[in-house]
Design a protein that fits this description.
Layout (H helix, E strand, L loop, with lengths): L1 E7 L8 E8 L4 H6 L10 H14 L1 E7 L1 H8 L4 H13 L6 E5 L5 H9 L6 E5 L2 H4 L1 H29 L11 H14 L11 H11 L1
Parallel strand pairs: 1-4, 4-5
Antiparallel strand pairs: 1-2, 2-3
Helix pairs in contact: 2-7, 4-5, 8-9
């Protein structure tokens, strides 16, 4: 039994981070490939939905959603890499695998792998950059995580957009629609929107711009 673990939503200023794990028999990798499993970023949203349904119906999987407020709380005592490693280990520990293939966060994949091992109950860790491209089981996890993250953002958008009648965007700081949404919300209510990561520096910059 092997497991792949990946995340979606590490960097956004709005919305949760989602971590997913998928467990397969090593001999089942070919089934994933035949189903079209590959790095989630290379697939259309519709195709991701189809493949995610196939994975969920045929393989053991786990999904953990870390809300923005929980990310803020955890960031008080740990870095974003430590936070991610902690959640990856939490997902890994839900089911046994001989090897856990991890898509590395940060610059040092060895260091990130060691962070995970500290909280791992069993098995060994192979932690690499671009593991979501190189290992089908990690690609499968990336698809599950991305589909759930998109679902969460859609729900948040439907909740918040009707209040100020403006598109929320992707939730990422690089998205001008997201920044404009936060700025207008702050102008109107003198506070940041729900589901916003208050520990992100993006918000401080928006606040300072209003003050000066």
């Amino acid at each position: 039994m092997i497991c792949g673990i990946d995340e979606a939503g590490r960097g956004p200023v709005i919305g949760p981070m989602v971590v997913a794990g998928v467990w397969i028999e090593e001999s089942d990798e070919e089934k994933l490939l035949r189903a079209g499993v590959k790095d989630s970023k290379t697939l259309t949203p519709g195709r991701r939905e189809e493949i995610a349904a196939y994975i969920k119906n045929n393989f053991i999987h786990e999904v953990v959603v870390i809300e923005a407020s929980d990310i803020d709380d955890l960031r008080k005592t740990m870095t974003i890499n430590e936070l991610e490693a902690y959640i990856f280990a939490r997902v890994a520990n839900k089911n046994f695998a001989r090897i856990y293939f991890i898509d590395s966060a940060g610059n040092d994949s060895k260091e990130f792998g060691e962070m995970i091992k500290k909280n791992l109950k069993y098995g060994e860790v192979i932690c690499e950059h671009k593991a979501d491209e190189n290992y089908p089981v990690v690609s499968a996890a990336s698809i599950i995580a991305k589909v759930e993250r998109d679902r969460q953002i859609k729900k948040i958008s439907e909740e918040l957009e009707k209040i100020i009648n403006k598109p929320l965007g992707s939730g990422y700081p690089s998205d001008e629609k997201t920044i404009e949404f936060i700025r207008e919300w702050f102008e109107k209510f003198n506070e940041f929107p729900p589901h916003t990561r208050k520990s992100w520096k993006t918000l401080e910059r928006i606040k300072q711009k209003k003050l000066f």
